[in-house]
Design brief:
The chain is of the alpha+beta class. Among the domains are: 104 residues, no CATH class; 82 residues, Helix Hairpins; 150 residues, no CATH class; 229 residues, no CATH class. Helix content is 38%, strand content 11%. It is built from 43 helices and 31 strands. The strands form eight sheets. Strands 20, 24, 26, 27, 28, 29, 30 and 31 form an eight-stranded mixed β-sheet that branches. Strands 1, 2, 3, 4, 5, 6 and 7 form a seven-stranded antiparallel β-sheet that branches. A five-stranded antiparallel β-sheet has the order 15-19-18-23-22.
Length: 1270
């Protein structure tokens, strides 16, 4: 065996050994990435990729807590998942590019899916870690292997998705997304691990593996039809997974719907292997089912799979989260079942090691893996010394407070490996470290400095950078808020011992004047957050409530004050002030923390609304609705509109275009809501403070459905009845045992809808950020079959709704009009109630529904109203509550739809037209919507007209051979436009939409199909489509360098002989190829494939007949580009000329509700225009700001992805329907000076009405409570 001889001198080795990591003076490049930058904000170690893979496969990351979180989560797992995973490649979902690599896998045993998304900066790919950089002795400037560090959960989406969210996206039921980055200075590599649940349920698997049932089916079939099933055997019982695998294989291989292979339900194998018991499985797989029951009672229909389109991914790989990927996932899980039956599986673990640039370590001892020395070093037992030292150098940077422990681990691992060189290196590192510690300790202030370092859990030897000390300070205070003052003193000791002014200044900034902003965020657990929003307020309050002592509470409050100071949030300052008062913590000297409610107001500004716990979205809507006159009229003059709370009136009341049945609970909650809203509107008029506080009762009435209110109180009552804890001083005595009430509401339904009626009503005919299934702003209300006269035939659609009648243990302390109970009819209607309770003379009678919901509104637990909701969804709830509280003013005789002030003000009527290619007439669907929907561009900005066009303009659906468009039949005076920013996979479309001050809606209005108006509209659709095609072609052309100059320069230096020889040689290779003439003709826009050039045959090539080389290529290309530009200009001018004539329906912008943040979290505010004073005001919870320039506001709104909900008002009706009420100024104090006394000493009464001056040219409108109803 050949031996390796090290020719380097002992002096060279000593030089390499005799420096601690990072102190050799070698220059190292630092390349940063967004993920890598997050490493600096934590004190977490990393590990070598081999250990990372090992920990992943064994569900036990040393640092990342994902598996601990998964253990606490209810997972849809058909098999136990806590076992060593065996991963195999999943479908056609893995691919590589120059800067990314995706590896999609599935566990053979538990069916969980693991996707590894690797990426790196292509510009620095040559600087990535590479095993070829391995050397001994080690160098600070070489990075042979990645060192993967968990950088915290993704900020844009929760790493553990709620169960409801997973169910909503069955294609990709993600449960964890965990990013890791390489900590090596030059390396930009990162890998994001995505874990998702199995696609197949346990029920499906049991059906496939129910061998006994299949054998019985086979035997029964042979008895009934022996000739047909002569070849059937009991072995068929084992073939269900194989057959399903084949069905899915055929689905994925089909190229079009025409060649999709249908499955006959009477097929011999399908009939016995699957049969009716598996029909639901194929429906869930989205196979299209036909039913054809024969005379023998057997269904002879079919299941036809939908053929998903091929991916447009350049690599050809399937896109995750699509239907095709879902089918591939299911097929892979079926193959896992087959592999577990005995067929060997090819695992992808070797490929994963190769992708991460490491080697698999064989025969790892599971006991040694979890020993402290290997955990802290981040390596596996028996890895070579080069790997160990590379990890040691990386960990030295990642966990500076554990450097002594790292050296001890290094020495222990050297002993384990019995490697002489590693032992020598470890001993040298230990000696250097100890000598430097001793040297520093002997200094004058060394003892105090070391004590301070140890306080921050840093090992003595202060060679730490100032930022490392600061991070240690932040960690300490965040972990133990009660020690903040001590930590400041320790930081001061370290700063005073330094002779570096810059070093001292960095530390002084942390303790000199309160906490810094990063420290405040660290204390509050917001290090990865982009800001402090209402969505985090409850978590911080919970920290304060759970704090053990007053010092800790003070630390949290000081951190909150820093956030409030930075954001200039009056609402947050108010919250801090209230919390100080609540916990008895005095305001520190020099602090100006005050609540908005306690501040004197500027009476020229409207009153703000305080955030009462993640209610910025509700505040924005309330401020806007306060400016809508019909809403104010209903709320202030409620008795004129009030719905009587009798069973008869409630039963007669039908809500909206769907004619939703109203129940008693909804009606009671609605009236309570209007009363609370009336109080709030009065406060907005009369308050002399900066902001007023909406009641929690109002928030509960809007944000919680009636069913939720009742269920919560039912749970409370049951808990009180079943398990009564010792009474607290402020708790009332336990109530009487709850009766079991078997109230049942009977409604004839065609489909079961488990949503609460309020939830159902609030989501009718609208699409929200939460509900992403529809791409239109309507749902069907009235339908019509195909007719030859385009006539609408109304049909009633019944919606099923379930409601639990529950008990509560406390009654409402708020007076409410509750009429006497009406005797229930005996005809089995929804009002019938049967009770099995026994009436006991000493037991309190059960509460009515009225009492239950009112008590729930009053006493609902605080957390129930603090989950952030979508503005459009909340707007729907508010509108529904207002409708449910008032009686109808008129009824449409043809449809039975009831109209009232709210519906007349906000609801728009739209028609959805659909026509198959072969049909001559359109089918119609009419709906009443509370808003219309606009879709931003997938990339870049677009106008609001273009965004609305994606909803209303004609759409050609080639697969279904039909066209469709939507038109507006009637417009309301106040029109809401929802900018739909939700996308697939729960992401937000943040592309800007250019918002016009005046919106003309003529182009979307309904018109007869035989009219010239409609014909021109069809022409405009064609023109718009042509413009899109030209722009796409221009983008493709402009992304390519012109080839004309290049080709001409190449041809200039060649002579004829050379050209003939080249062509002849090439022609000999193409002998026998059919001659194809060059086709220079083209129509319209030229695309890349407009030119067809054939290869000449041998016989066609002669020196005399050789065609001349093409000339003027550059000029030709230029001409083509100019032609495209010219046509584009012409088309755009024609379209603009057409639109310029459509200005009969102008709507003026009145309000814009904005959202900043991610799809399901963030912060809302609203801009509202005051037509009378010609100013814009920004209502941001407690803060109200003024902007006078409309152009400035519109430019701000049109250049970001923040606008989300637009409110327009018909231009001619704006004075009638909207205004901004002025708050009432307090009456001036009476002046009883001697100047106002007459001769008898009586007070002289004078007219105190202020005179109008030139400074107040406009007369303010009367307060809204004094205005006449419109």
């Amino acid at each position: 065996m050949a031996s390796r001889y090290d020719l380097r001198s002992a002096q060279d080795l000593d030089t390499s050994y005799a420096s601690l990591p990072g102190t050799s003076g070698t220059s190292v490049t630092e390349n940063s990435t967004p993920l890598k930058a997050r490493i600096l904000n934590q004190n977490l170690g990393g590990c070598h990729p081999s250990r990372w893979i090992y920990e992943l496969l064994h569900n036990n990351f040393t640092v990342c807590d994902v598996f601990g979180r998964l253990r606490k989560t209810e997972l849809n797992a058909p098999y136990p998942w806590e076992h060593p995973h065996r991963l195999m490649i999943n479908g056609n979902q893995s691919y590589s590019t120059n800067s990314t690599r995706v590896l999609s896998s599935v566990c053979v045993d538990c069916h969980f899916h693991f996707v590894f998304k690797m990426s790196w900066d292509e510009r620095h790919s040559q600087e990535s870690c590479n095993p070829q950089q391995e050397q001994w002795p080690p160098s600070d400037a070489r990075f042979p292997w990645h060192h993967l560090v968990w950088v915290g959960q993704e900020s844009q989406s929760s790493p553990l998705v709620k169960i409801d969210d997973r169910q909503r996206n069955k294609y990709y039921p993600l449960v964890a997304r965990e990013p890791f980055a390489c900590s090596a200075g030059p390396c930009t590599f990162s890998v994001t691990l995505e874990i998702s649940e199995p696609r197949m349920t346990r029920e499906w698997i049991d059906l496939l593996l129910d061998h006994d049932t299949i054998r019985k089916n086979v035997r029964r079939a042979k008895e009934q039809d022996p000739d047909r099933y002569a070849a059937a055997t009991d072995d068929w019982a084992l073939q269900a997974p194989l057959n399903l695998n084949t069905y899915l294989k055929n689905l994925l291989e089909a190229t079009s719907q025409e060649n999709a292979r249908s499955i006959s339900k009477r097929n011999k194998r399908f009939f016995v292997l699957f049969g009716t018991r598996c029909f639901e499985m194929f429906r869930q797989l989205e196979f299209e089912e036909t039913v054809d029951v024969a005379e023998d009672g057997v269904d002879g229909g079919t299941f036809t799979p939908p053929i998903p389109p091929r991916s447009d991914n350049p690599s050809g790989a399937t896109d995750l989260g699509t239907y095709r990927a879902y089918i591939e996932d299911v097929r892979s899980e079926v193959q896992c079942i087959i592999h577990r039956g005995g067929q060997p599986a090819e695992l992808c673990t070797p490929g994963l090691h190769a992708d991460l640039g490491c080697a698999e370590v064989p025969n790892v001892d599971s006991v040694l893996v979890n020993i402290t020395r290997y955990e802290i070093m981040g390596v596996l037992p028996n890895q070579p010394k080069e790997v160990v030292v590379n990890a040691y150098k990386r960990q030295w940077e990642m966990i500076p407070d554990k450097r002594k422990a790292l050296i001890d681990a290094l020495m222990s691992i050297g002993n384990d490996l019995n490697d002489e060189q590693l032992n020598e290196y470890a001993v040298t590192q230990s000696s250097i470290f100890e000598s430097q510690v001793q040297s520093q300790t002997n200094g004058d202030d060394g003892g105090l400095t070391n004590q301070a370092l140890l306080f921050f859990e840093l090992q003595p030897l202060n060679d730490y950078k100032a930022q490392s000390i600061v991070q240690a300070f932040r960690r300490k205070v965040a972990q133990d808020p009660s020690c903040a003052n001590t930590a400041r003193n320790m930081l001061m000791l370290i700063s005073q011992a330094s002779t570096d002014d810059n070093y001292t200044a960095e530390l002084v900034m942390e303790y000199g004047e309160g906490f810094s902003l990063p420290t405040a965020k660290e204390i509050l657990g917001l290090s990865d957050a982009s800001g402090f929003g209402p969505d985090t307020l409850d978590d911080v309050k919970e920290k304060i409530r759970n704090a053990k002592d007053k010092d800790a509470k003070t630390t949290y409050l000081e951190a909150m004050e820093k956030i409030a100071e930075h954001t200039n949030s009056t609402g947050l300052k108010s919250t801090v002030s209230e919390l100080r008062e609540m916990h008895g913590i005095a305001v520190p000297d020099g602090s100006n923390a005050t609540g908005a409610s306690a501040q004197a107001a500027n009476f020229d500004l409207p009153v703000g609304l305080e955030n009462i716990g993640n209610t910025c979205y509700l505040n924005s809507l309330l401020q806007y609705l306060f400016t809508v006159k019909p809403v104010r009229d209903v709320v202030i003059n409620y008795d004129k509109f009030k719905l009587e709370l009798t069973d008869e009136k409630i039963k007669e009341r039908l809500l909206g275009g769907n004619k939703m049945q109203l129940d008693r609970g909804e009606a009671v909650v609605a009236q309570a809501f209007v009363q609370e809203l009336s109080d709030l509107f009065n406060n907005l008029e009369q308050s002399d403070k900066v902001a007023t506080r909406p009641s929690q009762r109002l928030a509960n009435a809007v944000l919680l459905s009636t069913g939720t209110l009742l269920k919560e109180t039912k749970s409370s009552a049951e808990a009180t009845t079943e398990s009564q804890p010792p009474p607290l001083p402020t708790r009332p005595p336990p109530g009487p045992p709850a009766k079991e009430n078997n109230d049942v509401e009977m409604i004839t339904v065609t489909a079961n809808d488990s949503r609460d009626p309020v939830d159902t009503a609030s989501t009718v005919s609208s699409q929200t950020l939460v509900e992403e299934d529809s791409d239109r702003s309507y749902d069907k209300v009235e339908t019509s079959p195909t007719t030859t006269e385009d006539q609408v035939i109304d049909t009633v659609m019944e919606v099923g709704q379930d409601e639990d009648v529950v008990k509560i243990s406390r009654t409402s302390d708020r007076p409410m009009e509750i009429p006497e109970a009406v005797e229930n009819p005996k005809n089995g209607t929804s009002q019938d109630i049967e009770s099995t309770d026994v009436n006991m003379p000493d037991v309190e009678e059960p509460e009515t529904v009225d009492q239950k919901v009112l008590t729930a509104l009053e006493h609902q637990k605080r957390s129930s109203g603090t989950d952030q909701q979508d503005v459009e969804e909340v707007m729907g709830s508010i509108i529904n509550r207002l409708q449910a509280a008032i009686r109808p003013s008129s009824v449409d005789k043809s449809t039975g739809i009831q109209f009232e002030e709210i519906m007349k003000t906000f609801f728009v009527t739209t028609i959805n037209y659909t026509k198959k290619f072969d049909d001559k007439t359109y089918q119609k669907e009419i709906s009443f919507d509370r808003s219309i929907t606009a879709f931003p561009a997938p990339q870049g900005s677009c106008s609001l007209y273009e965004a609305l066009g994606r909803n209303f303009d004609q759409e050609i659906i080639e697969e279904d051979k039909l066209s469709r468009y939507t038109a507006i039949k009637t417009l309301p005076p106040v029109l809401h436009v929802l900018i739909q920013r939700s996308q697939s996979m729960g992401s937000k479309n943040g592309n800007p939409v250019l918002i016009p001050e005046i919106l003309y809606l003529d182009r979307y209005m309904d018109a007869p199909h035989e009219s010239s108006t409609f014909r021109k509209r069809v022409e405009s659709w064609a023109t718009h489509s042509r413009i899109s095609d030209i722009k796409a072609s221009k983008a493709a052309v402009e992304s390519t360098i012109p080839t004309g100059p290049i080709l001409e320069s190449i041809g200039q230096g060649e002579d004829g002989k050379g050209s003939i020889a080249a062509v002849t040689e090439d022609s000999e290779m193409a002998d026998g190829v059919k001659i194809v003439e060059e086709d220079w003709s083209f129509d319209g826009t030229v695309d890349d494939d407009y030119l067809l050039v054939g290869r000449p045959s041998v016989n066609s090539v002669t020196s005399a007949g050789l065609p001349s080389r093409p000339k003027d290529i550059k000029d030709t290309e230029t001409a083509i580009r100019e032609k495209m530009d010219s046509e584009l200009r012409d088309k755009e001018e024609a379209l603009e000329n057409y639109y310029s004539k459509l200005k009969s329906n102008p709507y003026r912008l009145h309000a814009v509700i904005c959202h900043r943040g991610q799809l399901m979290s963030g912060h809302y505010w609203v801009w509202i225009y005051d037509f009378e004073q010609d100013v814009w005001r920004k209502y941001n919870d407690s803060n109200v700001e003024v902007r006078r320039s409309t152009d400035e506001v519109l430019n701000t709104l049109s250049t970001s992805g923040e606008p989300y909900f637009l409110c327009y008002v018909r231009d001619e009706d704006k004075e009638t329907y909207v205004d901004v009420p002025r708050r009432r100024r307090p009456a001036p104090p009476s002046d009883t000076s001697f100047e106002n006394l007459d001769a008898d000493g009586d007070i002289t009464v004078t007219n105190s009405e202020p005179l109008k001056t030139s400074e107040s040219p406009q007369e303010l409108p009367p307060a809204y409570s004094e205005q006449n109803s419109d």
